[in-house]
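Data availability (excerpt). All sequences and predicted token strings are deposited with the supplementary files. A representative entry, F-box domain-containing protein, is shown inline so that the format can be inspected without opening the archive.
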Amino acid sequence: MDRISQLPDELILRILSFLPSMKHVMATTLLSKRWQFLGMMVPKLVYDYAYHYTRYRGSKRYSYFSDFVDKSLLTHEAPAIETMHFKLGQVYSSGDIRVWIREAGKRQVRELIIEFHLAYSRVTLPRSLYTYCRMLTTLKLSNAVLVDDDETSPVSFPSLKRLSLCIHGVPEFVVFQKAFTRLSCS
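Structure token line:
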């Protein structure tokens, strides 16, 4: 048995959580039979579209990525997930995003990071973000907008401590003004 495999599970999980994406975590767990179940226990989940199926383009590539995320979330068994991080490209599905946000809420994720690598547009996230994710302490959004045009719907994150909004190429202060006038944090 190698020395790394003799380390306690908590330390191996910590090491795995530093890998750049869940694809890398799953590939690494194949190195040892003892580690196979540890890939399903990592407390930090990073899903990066850029690392998946680079030989394909467009919707086919996204389809493989989406299936990987869905299967990974379905089989993940960690009692608590500290971080869920999605790095998405030009092709994405609002239906998938809605499902993944619900899953983050069910698992009481503390930190949610959603990055869209879009050149000239932004994505309005579904309302489920602020109805399901009540335990968030950190929310980081890139090229995504928290609120839609429904002025009556309050945005509430009772546990939120840190909020980071970054919208590239959109010089609209109105987006932030709308978000902050309806945002409630404790």
